[in-house]
Amino acid sequence: MASNVNLWVEIAIETPGDCPVAAASAERGATASAVSWSSVPDRDGLVTEEFVLDESDAPHLDGDSERIASHDSRSVYRFPRPTNAGCVCETVEALGEPVADVRAVDGTLRLSFHASDLETVREVVATLRERFEGVSLTELNSSAAATSTNLLFVDRDRLTDRQWEVLRTAYEMGYFEHPRSANACAVAEALGISPSTFSEHLAASLRKALPFLLSE
After folding, report:
1. CA angle 139-140-142, nearest 5°?
2. Strand extents, DSSP E, 60-191
């Protein structure tokens, strides 16, 4: 049952909008981690957010981030931000998924959370892609004790509409069966393309789909 499935999800956002954490990691070329924020806004409607930046020195950062502490080769920064600003973390939490971990590497924000089912993961990814650029699912692990089925999430957006159509038509016509119910010429004819074009589209779609199946 879906309620027994516990998925650990990580999503990378290459262009996370006006995110001081991502901007600091890009500016320093360092990793920003241990991101946290206050749950209750102050009287001005602002929440306070903190993050830790791995760096050997600590000159002033661009923007409103203020260094409040340092130890060894790490610095702690704090900045205020308005609520409901539509940032990546708020977007995910507005869908009912509490953010468990956030870090930024060279300007790319990596956000992790637990989800109960694959449909939730798809909704989060789709919503983020509507608002931000460079969104990709980088990790999907199941820790469900009640199921022995290995879960597989294939990001269909990696394929073009034409590649997906070719792959689906070939499957539906029995191209992958043994013996085949349809050969390349038959599938190509159904698609209205040449056999060589069919082979090119099929090869491209498999190159994009197989890494999801073969990844550990």
Report:
1. 145
2. 66-71, 74-82, 99-105, 108-115, 133-142
Say if domain 158-214 classifies as CATH 1.10.10: yes
Query: Do 99 and 113 contact (CB within 8 A), yes or no?
Result: yes
Residue 198 region by backbone torsions, left for phi larger than 0, else alpha for psi between -120 and 50, else beta: alpha
Residue 127, both tokens = 């919503």
For 21-54, what is each residue's pLDDT tens digit?
Answer: 999 899 888 889 989 888 788 888 898 999 998 8
206 by DSSP, 3-state: which? Answer: helix
pLDDT digits (tens, 9 = 90+) for 141-156: 775 443 444 555 666 6
Domain map (residue ranges) of the chain:
2-142, 158-214
